[in-house]
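Quick one:
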Amino acid sequence: MKKAIIAKKIGMTQVFTENGALVPVTVLEAGPCVVIQKKTMENDGYEAIQVGFADAKEKKVTKPMKGHFTKAGVAAKKYVKEFKLEDAANYEVGAEIKADVFAAGDKVDASGVSKGFQSTIKRYNASRGPMGHGSKSHRVVGSMGSSAYPSRVKKGKRMPGHMGSANVTIQNLEIVRADAEKNLLLIKGAVPGPKGSVLVIKDSVKA
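Output:
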């Protein structure tokens, strides 16, 4: 792995390429990430860097982590990840990793936690309702069962509910634009998780 960064999902939009093609993109707030610790062969048996993303309130940080950040001389961070980069030895504690570590055209893998709630259509492959404007019942659950007797929803009824909340990686996504000044990455297509969720963006293993 040569490049990696922690990012937060802002949402989706669309942009036009130089050829005039309309491309759907996911907007990510990528970094800046600060290097908190270096892992070395001498001390740890492998080379890697530990990076932090998004400032955290000190009162919400545990004492061991507070000491960890103080030792590195950086502000407390909400999210901490470790990356085994090929050039980890070239990074120094306190160095920043910004969105411009990637460039337009790069292929990346996006890892995050998938959404945790779905309707019956997504969860159980249920049919949708009429799509006419007057129906107003396009994606609702549908009939709940008997009304007079037994006057309740029967056990085992397929309903909307928990689905997802699993670590998911989407591979071979393309970087459309990287903006270091605004700390933004525009990735073609969709990435796991809802708005505001945190993802790890790294070099594609298949590229």
